[in-house]
Amino acid sequence: MKYIRQLGIILLFSLAGDVCHGLLPFPIPASIYGMVLLLLALTCKLVKVEDVKQTGDFLVSLLPLLFMVPAVGLMACWEQIQSEILKMILLIAVTTVLTFGVSGLLTKLFHKGGEQDG
Q: Per-residue pLDDT for 118 more than 70?
């Protein structure tokens, strides 16, 4: 019963994300709205981590399965993408480094903000 309740909470925030996506004119996916709303609820202590942790961990453990279909699709289209593979690898490398950099800077910024309270 605990898992059904936890899944219900997660699905409720997913539904809220769908509503936000339908109402707001921004090109942001509904899943992002839902995750941000859940993050805000966790941060404001409206939802406790224990209320979603076990089901969330289970769903995260299933993520590798979701990447299998796109990987098979890439293999099926190999002849079409083969001529562009170096560009793709370069693009992936650059965006990965940028993502790491921005994530690190944001983490550092937020960490400094938390130290001012002490």
A: no
14 touches 31 (CB < 8 A):
yes
7, 52 in Cβ contact below 8 A?
no
Q: Which of 51, 17, 50, 55 is nearest to 36 (CA)?
A: 17
> Does the model's pTM come out above 0.85?
no
Estimate the crossing angle of helix 53-61 against helix 2-23, to 10 degrees: 80
φ and ψ of 46, to 5 deg: -75, -30
CB-based contact 49:69 (threshold 8 Å):
no
Structure tokens at 36: 């941000």
Q: Which residue has the higher pLDDT, 16 or 108?
A: 16
Residue 26 DSSP label: S
Mean pLDDT, residues 101-109 taken together: 92
